[in-house]
Amino acid sequence: MSGNSAPIAKQGQVDLAGEDAVAFQAAALMAIDPAGLSGAVLRGPADSRRDEWLDSLRNMLPRGAPWRRVPLGITDGRLLGGLDLVASLSTGRPIAQQGLLAESDGGIVILPMAERVEGETIAKITAVLDQAALRVAREGITFSQQVSLGVIALDEGATEEEHVAEALSDRLAFQISCAVFDPRQAPPTKTSRAEIMAARELLPRVCIPADLPEAFCAAALALGIESLRAPIFALRCARASAALAGRAEVTREDAALAARLVLAPRARQIPEAPADEEAPSPPQEQDSGQENSQRAEEQPSLEDLILAAAQASLPKGLLAGLGVAARQMARQAASSGRSGMMRRSARRGRPIGARPTAWRAGLRLALVETLRAAAPWQEYRRREKPHHAALVHIRREDVRIRRFKQHSETTTIFLVDASGSAALHRLAEAKGAVELLLSDCYVRRDRVAVIAFRGRGAEILLEPTHSLVRAKRSLAALPGGGGTPLAAGIAAGFAMAESSRKRGQTPVIVALTDGRANVTRDGMGGRAVAESEALDTARLFKAAGIATLLIDTAPRPQAFSRDLASAMGARYVPLPFADATRMSAAVREAARMPAPGS
Amino acid sequence: MDGALTGFRPASRGPDAQSSRRGVSRRRDEAPAPITSPRIRNAYPFSAIVGQEEMKRALMIAAVDPSIGGVLVFGDRGTGKSTAVRSLAALLPEMAIVAGCPYACDPASPSGGCAHCAVLAKGKKHERRMVPVPVVDLPLGTTEDRLAGALDIERALAEGVKAFEPGLLAAAHRGFLYIDEVNLLEDHLVDLLLDVAASGENVVEREGISLRHPARFVLIGSGNPEEGELRPQLLDRFGLSVEVATPKDLASRVEVVCRRDSYDRDPQGFLKHWSKDEAQIRDTVLAGRKRLGSVTLPLGTIEKAAELCMALGTDGLRGELTLVRAARALAALEGDLEVGPVHLRRMAPSALRHRLRRNPLDETVATTRVEKALEDVFGA
User: ipTM of this predicted complex?
Assistant: First the structure.
């Protein structure tokens, strides 16, 4: 296959088969310029369709090009390089060992389950992508080396929240959704290695039209793409596409393809439709074999063409997702994209040094520190035991183990009853308590989130964030009035607590309410149903063992609130004359207490 | 003999790839070479960065007067922070060191440098050598032993000799230490850096080694504040802070993309095209250094600076010191003979915005507070 056989999507039409072929074309482009395009995110479950894509890429790379998988829990030593344990001990001298990144120079690195990779690992990989070099200073070795590689991130996230860290996806040219791979379609004609090599030779000589950078930048702006990497990748993609077709000049087809592959997946907004969008009217173009030159007079400007191509490929449900996107942009919180870290054992976490200890199974040896501890004694020990065959005499007291710091971030989720029954001054005190706690959270580096419920349902006012300014701003905007949809509020709080847990944080729920539930989950009135629903939902907390604190703000504490607290397994604090200081003291207590087991 | 690094395969690509292996099989008195990038590959030239005037000026000021204390660059990813810092190294003039000293001591220094220098001199004057000013990168994943220095394992195991192997802090002495993603730096490394930056000396007490060596360097950091808060003690260590953002207007964005594209296609040609501008910036920095000593600082200016800091409520006196020094360096850079209110006004945001006592709930952005105080103190 050579040339762009995928039909360019006509304005307003989307050709799914086209998407499939286009995605496989991305593999060919990657093979032509792996370092320049830096890589791709493949989003979708692990199945044969994804493997087909990976295989096609692999078969197009030069024979013998490195193709390495990065396991999820990889240590720094393996990733960056370090001491070779076996060799060092057997020869008695420190022997350095190349890491996985250095070994992949000139090839491709695969990141399976990329949405779960630790932030630190992502940071090291992006550092190599940014500088095209690997710099290492650890475990007794210091070196720097030029490394150019491409990264394929396999995103297996199931929900909207689970996605690859933006720090990584911004640095990779393509974002491909595996959903477009149609298994009923015959796989597109393969490009041979020879064709790829020829394209690589041609690539440095490919020229671009002078107005192309501006067209890409303008289109990116119109699509709401902030990052400047997108237009740069689009240029490189257009060049690779021209080289693949054997041309030394980038044409409009190449530009449109780049728009579909690079710009469309990153789009954050639908550009405003220009007034003359409908200008090339249907009666003229019916057959797909129409030459472009025949409509030279009606040809849209380069920028319009790029925008149209990108729009045709906009991800499904972008409109629906725009609400989410707007909140995400407003949030600006760095999402680490790390999900599913359910448990942390003593072997994982951030290394924070080594210390001497009695050796036992399950601990990680800190090799260099152990060798250093043993080194001064070698002379003496050799004299002591001249017949001993070991090259390095290590005693128990030399052994150092690696210590890890586990994540223990707390996310404090405030569930605030903003209904009319919670009198205005309660709300003001609740806000005051939250503000006092925010300064605590700043010191402890905790996160804070706020969910308010009133009227018909619950609303997330603030996603978990470190930013205290934003926290205060969201509280200031909190309105009051309406019924009390208690069950909905509790359910929303539970959902957020669970997602926090998945990210390895410890959630603490603080519910401020007067317990006068009168709106059911469906949004209907009815005290009895509302109360029973609230109790049912509350039991989820106890079952999940989440630390909860229920602050009762009713002027006269009711029995129901106590029942609710015991259903939640929560500490119950009646504060009829609630004042901010006492509330905040109670929450601090709750944060310190262990999860309820009783 | 190939000795220690037998298992190690160096880079196999290209004639311009270099891999310098340090840390094992090295003579004790060899000066530790810095890990710099620009010599290995063609670093993007400083003068070719589009916009970001505040950041470029802050970096030039840090080069003119190292005593100001370094620059912290805040901003999103992809705004050219790391590019600017790495290209700074190419602009710096060379410095004189004592030949043979592993810590690159200053031959003109009155205290005579470290213990090695005393041994080398043996009562005579030191031999000098000119070397480039080190700009040491603190790579991600650095361990403490490489930062502070540690026992040289190979010599200890093979020869039974207790030798100290200097680390990155020694390599950065009298130069710059660049920390990318400074808010991701691990806590125990931050502690070590704070300690050394405060005292100017690295004290090593581990694995049977006990020594101290001079380590005075300028910290340059870059990071995205959204990804984590920086400790106030660490923030205070940086003399100037700068905020950068991706340009919003189309023309600048197009210019960034076009320049990056031409650089990618032909790095050598691009560098040659910009070499005149680079030389100009280097000359400006050099001239600024020469003039620095002769710029006068009137008492009135010092008083204004103190007034400004009091109005803002900055903690301690470092705010005033930094502001005054930065203003003087700016005057030197621009060829003015005296430090005046105009220099104070221009440097106040950089010098003070990260030192304001933080009320975490105050919504006003730090820069706005500084500007407001400027208006109060200097008038409109």
Answer: 0.77
